[in-house]
Amino acid sequence: EGELMRLQEAIRGASRLGLRVITGLGLGYASAPRVARIPDVDEIRVGHAVIARGCIVGLDRAVREMKQLVS
């Protein structure tokens, strides 16, 4: 929770400066939905997590699951 709060503060600050906020690097199926719900996040990049999960359950299913989680 503390890390998420720090992330929210950083995103707010970046947004106030007029920066686009693109998150990624280390986001997985558990953390991506929480980050996607933060206001001012313009884009999330979860390609590595999707590909890794796709190796186990198939890429089609991995993509559908992630889309459902972050929408």
Query: N-to-C SSE series?
Result: HEHEHH
* Overall mean confidence score, pLDDT: 94
Number of helices: 4
Spatial gap, N to C terminus? 21 Å
The count of DSSP E runs of length 2 or more, i.e. the number of strands, is 2
Beta content comes to 5-15%
Poorly predicted runs: none
Radius of gyration from CA coordinates: 13 Å
**Which structural class should the secondary elements be placed in?**
mainly alpha
Proportion in helices: 55-70%
Account of the protein in words:
There is one protein chain. The chain has 71 residues and is mostly helical. 61% of the residues lie in helices and 6% in strands. The protein has a two-stranded parallel ribbon. Helix 2 (32-36) links the parallel strand 1 and strand 2.
Give a concise summary.
By secondary structure, the chain is mostly helical. It has helices at 2-16, 32-36, 47-57, 59-70; strands at 22-23, 43-44.
Topology of helices and strands:
Elements lengths: L1 H15 L5 E2 L8 H5 L6 E2 L2 H11 L1 H12 L1
Parallel strand pairs: 1-2
Helix pairs in contact: 3-4
Keywords, separated by commas or semicolons:
71 residues; mainly alpha; 4 helices; elongated
